Amino acid sequence: MVVRRRPQRAHRFTESPVLQLALQGWRSRTVGLLLMGAFLALVARGFYLQVINNDFLQEKGDSRYRRDIEVSASRGKIMDRHGDMLAVSTPMKSIWAIPGDARTMDAPQKKQLAALLEVGVRELDGKIAADKTFAFIKRQVPPETAERIALAKFPGIHQEKEYRRYYPTGEMTAHIVGFTGVDDKGLEGVELAFQNSLLGHPGNRTVIRDRRGSIVEDVGSIKPPQDGKDVHLAMDSKIQYLAYSQLKNAVESNKAKAGGAIVIDARTGEILALANWPTYNPNNRQNLSGAQLRNRAITDTFEPGSVMKPFTAALALEKGKVRFDTVINCAPGRLTIGSATIADAHPHGALTVAQVIQKSSNIGTVKIALGFPPQELWEMFDSVGFGQAPNLGFPGEVNGRLRPWKSWRPIEQATMSYGHGIAVSLVQLARAYTVFARDGELVPLSLTRLEGTPVHGVPVFSPHTAREVRAMLEMAVQPEGTAPKARVPGYRVGGKTGTAYKVEGGVYAKKYVASFVGLAPISDPRLVVAVMIDEPSAGAHYGGDVAGPVFSQIMGGALRTIGVAPDAPLQVAAATPAKERM
Amino acid sequence: MRLNMILLLVVVICALGLVTSQHRARKLFQGLEGEQEKARQLEVEYGQLQLEMSTWATHPRIEKIARDRLRMVMPGAAPRAPLAAARPLARKDGR
């Protein structure tokens, strides 16, 4: 059965009776205008944001995903001539806090943090109690500890990367290498002298980070970081150790106040070793005293004494005033000039020029020196580098004291010829002796390793004079000379002792500076070693007894280290048993 | 009408291609970044190892071990001779 419930006819939509109603035209137009107006407002706003004021939005957008990051650069290493590390930087973390946030830590957290940082809880409390927005909790924290602190997520505790400088060789090389401050800036020694090339320049880059914080894209320009350049010193750490340990032994056994030793390669002018005592540990610089910090070999001057005599003799030989075997009467061991009297430690009779040097006669030297006008003596001293800084580029180099010749009195000229009334540093003295090692040429010294380029010096004496002086220097270490203890088994060496009174308050005190400067092997000199011991007070005070043995140990070890063939006849080596320490 | 549909398809394909290639570029970049970070860390570790090595190899330590533990001594002058002159007498260098 079919039920017809609604028999009406369906309307089509357009025929809907509602639409058949007549509307007032203004209503539709008003709505249309309103909509159009709203649309225009949107367009205008869009135009304003996108075109006119887009910097602001761009910046807001950038701040959400763009980051400028600094790329850190490390400080260059300092190495010795064979690449052994002398100073290395490794990354560390500094732990800092925003005190306001950090105070929200509860007691167990504080305790944990204090334990990790190895500081007291009270100290920690004190640091975060400060009314500041930034406070260092601890600097130079090892990366592993910093990692654990980061994992524990303490509130208000943050980290910053920094570097710490380590000096594996410690006090042995402290004076030459120097050290840096906490901000990685060189404060002393080579660290200061080569600050510009050692320093790294951090770079920066702009990146886009994603939601998880990882970098997804580089935008903008990248400035790559520039790591500091490594510095290769001329130093040979083996020879340095030898010089350091021998010097230390000598200073201690002679109960001296201080000491210095230098080893120079005569062929190149490179400083192979430079040691001072007392010294300090650059890794731990608490309780440092000025005496420990002083690099005596470079920054301190002293009256050298007899080590200057060979220069006087060389000048006389050069000018033809005397010959190697000219006889000079040194009796009776005293000589009066004006109101002053010069004496020899041991009176001698007639000596040849060579014997004057061998036996270190003051009288003989003075008689040779008084044959010159002051100007010539001054010019010679000046040309071997006395009275002027050695130009190593090292902080605190001194000129020494060499007074202008015009104001010299005869007695001063006399004393200067044997090394009093003139002040020099040990490095100047060692450098001056290169003229005898190099056939009369003075070479510039170098702290850094030179790359095989032959070094040319400034000629001061003729090769003939240099050879004759070398022969005299060799005589001085023979049994008849002043320094038989300076001999080195297996090698022919030569050198000159110095025993000088110290000047204290303008007068000579009964305190001494014992020194020895020598070269070896005599047949073809390779090394110059200078040793200075300040105020030996355990009995012996002569240069030959105090500084001579140190010279012998350092020279012997250094020659073997660099592999110089022995040039002494074999039986000499066998006849002198050496009680040698390494 | 037909042409429009084809162009629309082409545009959609290009857009998807751009998205995937951008994604891949970022993935690769992250990989590179990770490797560079690793290289930096290795360099740091190398520096630390060098430091450690030179700390173990300081001359005072070597001398101490040589003397105390290994009981080594410096030879006197007599057994030391140049190689050419006396071959059987061990090494020229006592150290």
Describe the fold and architecture.
The complex is a heterodimer of chains A (582) and B (95). With 582 residues, chain A is an alpha+beta fold. Chain A has 22 helices and 21 strands. Helix content of chain B is 69%, strand content 0%. Chain B is rod-shaped. Mean pLDDT of chain B is 82; it is low at 85-95.
Radius of gyration of chain A, Cα only, in angstroms?
40 Å
Q: From the alpha carbons, calculate the radius of gyration of chain B and give it in angstroms.
A: 35 Å
- Unreliable spans of chain B are 85-95
CATH topology of the largest domain in chain A: Beta-lactamase
Name the chain pair with the biggest interface and residue counts per chain.
Answer: A-B, 40 and 32 residues
Low-confidence stretches of chain A: 572-582
Judging by the overall fold, what is the CATH architecture of the largest domain in chain A?
3-Layer(aba) Sandwich
Overall mean pLDDT of chain A stands at 86
What level of helicity do the residues of chain A show? 25-40%
Estimate the global geometry of chain B from the Cα principal axes: rod-shaped
End-to-end span of chain A in angstroms?
Answer: 129 Å
State the gist of this model.
The complex is a heterodimer of chains A (582) and B (95). Chain A is an alpha+beta fold and 582 residues long.
